[in-house]
Amino acid sequence: MAYQSINFTEKLSLIKEHWSPRIIAQMNDYHFKLAKIKGEFVWHAHDDTDEVFVCIDGDLTIEFKDGSVGLGPGEMVVIPKGKEHRPVAQEECRILLIEPAGTVNTGDNPGEMTQARTEWI
Amino acid sequence: MAYQSINFTEKLSLIKEHWSPRIIAQMNDYHFKLAKIKGEFVWHAHDDTDEVFVCIDGDLTIEFKDGSVGLGPGEMVVIPKGKEHRPVAQEECRILLIEPAGTVNTGDNPGEMTQARTEWI
């Protein structure tokens, strides 16, 4: 049987909008999501879970209320459960997110950037 | 406060042995581990959990009893719970593993490649 790997670059080519994650894989009850981001997201926290950001390509900053962390290609960070954060990217950046299935992108701060449903690609 | 990203290349430079994963991050009850691999690992399965392989650098093949999947840089695969598999790399390959904390590298097939304890770097 021919099994298929999941290629980040190929999957990212299917994503057109910024701040609109798409699911590419499931491990137990966790989803792996790819996203293209540019500009400033909204401040939010995830009250029930940690969240992982991996930078695939480009640069992003994740702002916290008491500091920030910069991520370049091949770097990751764990956002602790309940910690307010805001991702920001001056230029388009491509990221991998890992979080429990059902985690809402805007966490505790719903609004116009909230993605009601996260599609698979 | 200055937060620190986790850089895969920097962390990998700290690993000397093949087939000896090191923990670099924890998200909820999951560990992120880096490893350098070369040659053939042992056939095994993880009866209680899926497992994710991400290829950072190099090429590997994950053999199954009924086929195989090849991974190059920027590619990942989810090994389903209970599925027998054997990672193989002709040349040194650097990988990121994501699995529940406490998952043993050789799964249901302990032996001389079993890592009794997985250290943080």
Write the layout of secondary structure elements.
Two copies of one chain form a homodimer.
Chain A: E1 6-7, H1 8-12, E2 22-27, E3 30-40, E4 51-57, E5 60-64, E6 67-71, E7 75-79, E8 85-100
Antiparallel strand pairs in A: 2-3, 3-8, 4-7, 4-8, 5-6, 5-8
Number of helices of chain A: 1
Number of domains of chain A: 1
Largest protein interface? Answer: A-B, 38 and 38 residues
What is the β-strand count of chain A?
8
Unreliable stretches of chain A (pLDDT < 50, length at least 5) are none
What is CATH's topology name of chain A?
Jelly Rolls
Helix-strand pattern of chain A: EHEEEEEEE
* Assembly type: homodimer
Q: Round the mean pLDDT of chain A to the nearest integer and report it.
A: 97
The CATH superfamily of chain A appears as: Jelly Rolls
Helix content of chain A: under 10%
Describe the structure in your own words:
The structure is a homodimer of 121-residue chains. Helix content of chain A is 4%, strand content 47%. Chain A is mainly β and 121 residues long. In chain A, strands 2, 3, 4, 5, 6, 7 and 8 form a seven-stranded antiparallel β-sheet that branches. In chain A, β2 and β3 form a beta hairpin. The two termini of chain A are 22 Å apart. Chain A binds chain B through residues 1-9, 25-28, 30, 32, 49-52, 56, 62, 64, 66-72, 74-78, 81, 98-100, and chain B through 1-9, 25-28, 30, 32, 49-52, 56, 62, 64, 66-72, 74-78, 81, 98-100. β1 of chain A pairs antiparallel with β7 of chain B, so a sheet runs across the interface.
